[in-house]
Design a protein that fits this description.
252 residues, alpha/beta, Rossmann fold, 2 domains, six-stranded mixed β-sheet, four-stranded antiparallel β-sheet, 10 strands, 37% helix, globular, binds adenosine-5'-diphosphate, binds magnesium ion, ABC transporter ATP-binding protein, ATP binding, ATP hydrolysis activity, nucleotide-binding, ABC_transporter-like_CS
Length: 252
């Protein structure tokens, strides 16, 4: 999908991005002038206290919430001005999203939930199935393929949602607390998969409270009251420890 005009562009860039919720008359500023730049292949963890605007920010990056002002660019293309259907196309083709709530389709099997985005994007059924088998296997869910989402625990549903978001091999993976409901063993599976796809070149922007998750990232961006208060590269530490995925394997 890359064209010459996209080469060298950041995967994501925001310019003075602002979100003010207007509910019940009183304006609530959730994101207050965020300038964020994420390079292709970079893994950025977004941290910060509850209410600091993390979910609002990643929702805007995925077109799930509209901005009040400012700009959002994805691979050199301005997207904050897109309408809902154009966003739907962009999400189908370029952006994978793991929500805090999993949004699985209840009357479809786990396997179909994971394969659907790839099929919608035009992948062959065989390739969609292979990718699904790989992702569910990595996440310890191979034996749940034929289950309905309602038969799964919260943690299992959360991992299915991650598999679904990665099914398309999206240019950018956006995730809002993807390990929020997981015990330590399942968190380790998720970390291993994130490390693996990151090594394969996956761009990731991920909200987390978990230091282990943030430890895999190239950079940690910290939000406070809707503003970036810290934007620290953690690359030097990563270099001395080898690849991100190796770290997880050493620990497991
Ligand atoms: N739909 C909404 N309507 C009104 N206020 C909201 C809405 N969503 C979030 N907020 C407010 O915006 C601020 C940031 O929220 P959020 O982005 O969810 O923070 P975080 O994900 O860091 O916990 C909070 O003050 C929250 O109450
Ligand atoms: Mg949140």
């Amino acid at each position: 999908m890359t064209t010459a005009s996209e080469a060298g562009q950041p995967a994501i860039r925001t310019v003075n991005l602002v979100k003010i919720y207007q509910t019940g008359g009183l304006p609530v500023p959730a994101v207050r002038g965020v300038d964020l730049r994420v390079e292709p292949g970079e893994f950025v963890a977004v941290m910060g206290p509850s209410g600091s605007g993390k979910s609002t920010l990643v929702h805007m990056l995925g077109g799930l919430d509209t901005r009040t002002s400012g700009e959002i660019w994805v691979e050199g293309r301005r997207v904050d001005t897109l309408n809902e259907s154009a966003w739907a196309v962009l999400r189908r083709q370029q952006i994978g999203f793991v929500f805090q709530f999993f949004n699985l389709v209840d009357n479809m099997t786990v396997a179909d939930n994971v394969e659907l985005p790839a099929l919608l994007a035009g992948t062959t059924p065989r390739h969609a199935r292979e990718r699904r088998e790989y992702l569910l296997g990595e996440l310890g869910l191979a034996d749940k393929a034929d289950s309905a989402p309602a038969q799964l625990s919260g943690g299992e549903q959360q991992r299915v949602a991650l598999a679904r978001a990665l099914a398309n091999q999206p240019r950018v993976l956006l995730a809002d607390e993807p390990t929020g409901n997981l015990d330590s063993r399942n968190t380790r599976d998720v970390l291993r998969l994130l490390g693996e796809v990151h090594r394969q070149g996956q761009t990731i922007v991920l909200v987390t409270h978990d230091g282990r998750v943030a430890g895999l990232a190239d950079r940690v961006v910290t939000l406070l009251d809707g503003q970036i208060v810290d934007d620290g590269a953690v690359a030097p530490r990563r270099r001395t420890r080898g690849g991100a995925g190796d770290v997880v394997e050493l620990r497991s």
